[in-house]
Amino acid sequence: MINFTVGPVQSSEKVREIGAEQVPYFRTNEFSELMLENEKLMLKFSAAPDGSKAVFITGSGTAAMEAAILNTLTSSDKVLVVNGGSFGQRFVELLTLHEIPFTEIKLDQGKQVTKNMLAPYNGGGYTAFVVNAHETSTGVYYDMNLISDFCKRNKLFLVVDSISSFLADEFNMEKLGASVMITGSQKALACPPGISIIVLAPAALKRVQNSKVKCMYLDLKDAIKNMERGQTPFTPAVGILRQIHERLLCIDKDGGVSAEIQKIADLARYFRQEIKELPFEVVSESLSNAVTPLHPTTASAYDIFTILKDEYGIWVCPNGGKLKTSVFRVGHIGLLTKDDYDTLISAFKDLQKRGII
Ligand SMILES: *Cc1c(COP(=O)(O)O)cnc(C)c1O
């Protein structure tokens, strides 16, 4: 099998080896040290400002999205939220559920946020801005510099879901003035699913300390307090945290976050170059390095996904909902090589020869 989905993705051999080991007991100095190192590297790789902290939540990315909304926003906020697909929609649902006032910036499929779209909200009394840096469902990578400028001018508290973009696209929390950054274990971190990570800048830590959260498991005050000694309030996914440790150390040793981004960007560029002759349209105004969203002009996207999986042992990423038959995605994160893309492109050419696409 070759997996080109956007998560879970393929892991390195070392990460997989850790997955095969016994899971150790974790209330120990050894595990605390590992966790503090995880925190240090997460703060480094997200370019978090001084005084920031990271917490590790056992739960998929959505747990961290919900924890961030619950702990840093209240009913006194007035939030702007970008909704360009299913992950933007998830933030809209979380804000609705937790009764936080918001205005939705709704985008058509594949569209970028523009200056003109933000202009009507200038000076509109907003307090916070919530966005997925990369809307993975449609493959649109938002103009984070534009959003950052808008937030700085309007003094907005910026919450960024970087789940699929962290380690794939440049992300500098300090430069962007982002107060919250969220990511997850199964995207470019290339570990099994089960852990999500929240990096909190000082402005976010202050909001967390003042919040009155009606939730025990996702109360970040408790998580932050425990993390001071490298621990978590409840039993975490110990094995995955050990795998994340291995992966973070490996990235650090191999040239750091910029080298990792470069590697993913090179694969994305190679794939996009090689498919130019195939009957596919790229359906995003602005691409992340993490994924290429494709509209096949001669066949159903879902049929292509199924045939590649069943007959070629290749997994591309299907879309759900309205886009099920019109769009599939090819990921560039996880353990992949140019040879893997050559195999995928040969399979596409074979589908062409067979008259399927
Ligand atoms: C994958 C992803 C999530 C998290 O989804 P989970 O299934 O809860 O891990 C959230 N936001 C974006 C942009 C994602 O790509």
TrEMBL record:
Sorted UniProt keywords: Aminotransferase, Pyridoxal phosphate, Transferase
Superkingdom, taxonomy of origin: Bacteria
Named cofactor requirement(s): pyridoxal 5'-phosphate
Residues binding substrate: R329
Domain Aminotransferase class V: 28-316
InterPro entries: Aminotrans_V_dom (IPR000192), PyrdxlP-dep_Trfase (IPR015424), PyrdxlP-dep_Trfase_major (IPR015421), PyrdxlP-dep_Trfase_small (IPR015422), SP_NH2Trfase/AEP_transaminase (IPR024169)
Molecular functions per Gene Ontology: transaminase activity
Modified residues annotated as N6-(pyridoxal phosphate)lysine in this record: K187
Entry protein name: Aminotransferase class V-fold PLP-dependent enzyme
Lineage summary: Bacteria, Bacillati, Bacillota, Clostridia, Lachnospirales
